[in-house]
Amino acid sequence: MPCCGGGVNPGIVPTYINQLGKDIMLAAGGAVQGHPDGAESGVKAMIQSIESACQGIDLNEARKNHKELDKALEIWGIDDRL
Q1: 3-state DSSP call for residue 10?
Q2: What three-state secondary structure class fits 15?
Q3: Cα separation, 12 vs 75, whole angstroms
């Protein structure tokens, strides 16, 4: 199983899923611990990003309904390599 680590954050999740598929492991450390509202919000933001990407929902659309994801994307941005 491919495992992506180092620089993994909610804004890059769609790129990884698009390039590697859904059967991957995302080792998000700094993006979880570094969320300004704490680690719990960091986990929520990652889950929100993963669920959105798996459903084909654009992150800019998803962030409108998820405050944790929105705040994370303010910090880390959205990867534009899709």
Answers
A1: coil
A2: helix
A3: 12
Q: What's the rounded Cα separation, in Å, for the pair 82 and 65?
A: 22
User: What pLDDT, on the 0 to 100 scale, is given for residue 46?
Assistant: 97
Quote the pLDDT of residue 82: 60
State the Cα–Cα distance between residues 58 and 34, nearest whole angstrom: 23
CA distance 81 to 19: 10
Q: Which residue range forms the structural domain that includes residue 27?
A: 3-76
Three-state secondary structure call for residue 26? strand
Element (H, E) at 25: strand 25-27
Residue 81 lies in a domain: no
20-71: per-residue pLDDT in tens?
A: 999 999 999 999 999 999 999 999 999 999 999 999 999 999 999 999 999 9
